[in-house]
Amino acid sequence: MTNVAVIYYSSTGNVHTMAVAAAKAAEKAGAEVRLRKVAELAPQAVIETNPAWAAHAEATRDVEVASTDDLVWADVVLIGTPTRFGAAASQIKQFIDTTGGIWAEGKLVNKVASGFTSTSTAHGGQESTLLALNNTFYHWGAIIVAPGYADPVQFAGANGNPYGASSVSANQAGNVHEENLAAVEFQARRCVEIAAALKKGFAAV
Ligand SMILES: Cc1cc2nc3c(=O)[nH]c(=O)nc-3n(C[C@H](O)[C@H](O)[C@H](O)COP(=O)(O)O)c2cc1C
After folding, report:
1. Which of ligand 1's atoms lies nearest the C-alpha of 11?
2. pTM here?
3. I want to staple 31 with a disulfide (CB 3.0 to 4.6 A). Which of 4, 146, 155, 174 is the partner?
4. Cβ(86) – ligand 1 distance below 6 Å
5. Which residues contact 9 (CB under 8 A, 6 or more apart)?
């Protein structure tokens, strides 16, 4: 059994929708899956300035919050974040910054890792966000499994990002194109497949 942790942050539901699709696809591929949001850092007063943000926070209040134990448990770590000025959301960064202890113990080595994102605009920083996430994965000693163009879904009109599934929301809540969902499903399946092969390979050496 391959363990998959889908860990995400989402203010207005786009990345959440992608995370749920990734989790379901990994489960369908035979993995055991933990879907976890990272802790919110924004003050409630700020959240309430945006009705979509407040509504999404309320709708997902029962989603379990990610811990470093989820990373230790996982064979595959899929991290989803909206773009914030071309980089990951601070909520995701804060979670990443709690991994120093398990990193020092070597507990992140050889995890299969992959990122997905959502931006408002097509050239709003999807690649810079995903490449910045990859920098963390390198430091963990993880094995980055990007979708590449390894499936025809990557050539669908709304897709095309080989670094990780990416949606363009136009700042609309929960506005993920079905082709983006197919892309993140493929990405999750690919990670499960590669992690299972790695496990077998390591067991054989
Ligand atoms: C502070 C802030 C910074 C943002 N920076 C960018 C950006 O650099 N480029 C972009 O295209 N969208 C940017 N966005 C928009 C979000 O990334 C976009 O709406 C995304 O789809 C939200 O995902 P979510 O619904 O999962 O929260 C920004 C939003 C906020 C609140």
Report:
1. 27
2. 0.98
3. 4
4. yes
5. 15, 37, 38, 80, 81, 82, 89, 91, 92, 95
Task: Say how many Å lie between the CA of residue 89 and the centre of ligand 1.
Answer: 9
Domains of the chain: 3-204 (3.40.50.360)
DSSP 153: G
Give the nearest ligand 1 atom to 85 CA: 8
* Distance from the alpha carbon of residue 4 to the mean position of ligand 1, in angstroms: 26
Residues paired with 117 in a beta bridge: 81, 166
AA letter at 115:
G
Structure tokens at 15: 């990345």
pLDDT, one tens digit per residue, over 154-179 is 999 999 999 999 999 999 999 999 99
Q: Which residue's CA is minimally distant from atom 31 of ligand 1?
A: 84
Asked whether 66 and 37 are in contact (CB, 8 A), the reply is yes
